[in-house]
# Entry
Amino acid sequence: MTRSPVSSDSAATSASEALPDTWQIKLLYDGQCPLCVREVNFLRKKDDGRGLIAFVDVMSDRYTPQENGGVTFEAAMGHIHAVRRDGTVIKNVEVFRQVYTVLGLGWVYAPTRWPIVGPLADWAYSVWADWRLRLTGRPDLATLVAQRQARLACGEGDRCRLGEG
# Structure
C-alpha cells in the first residue's frame, strides 16, 4: 500500500498523540498547503517551545474529528478551524485573532475587530479559502475528500492492492 506524503513537517501533532498540558488552542491546518505550513512555522517560532498552541495537521491520516471538536476533514480543509481548551470550535479570521492573542501578538489582528476592517477581513479570508486549493496547485476539495476516503479504506484490511484499478 502506498500513501501520499502528508507533510514535510515531521513535528506535526497528530490528534492521537499526547498534547502538552500547556496548550490553550489547537490549530487545525493543512500540512500540504505551502502557505499554511509557512504560517505554522512562524507561529511555532513565536510559541517558542511553550506549547501554547497545539498544531494538528488535518492532512495526516491519523486526523480524527472526534479528537478535534468534531471538525470533519472536509470542514477543516474548507476553512481554517481551531479548538479552544474548553472544546469551543472557532473558524475563519477568529482563529487568527485568538491564536495570535494566545501568543501575545493580539495587536496584529486587533484591527480585524473594527467595524469596517472586520467585515472586510472576513470577506477577504472567505475569498482566500474558496480559492486556496487552486492557487496552491492542489486538487479541489471534493477530490481531496475522495482521495482521503480511498486512502483510509485501503488501510482497513486487504481491500486495496497496488496495480489494481
Remarks:
- The longest helix spans residues 117-135.
- Residues 15 and 67 are 6 Å apart (CA to CA).
- The two ends are 13 Å apart (CA to CA).
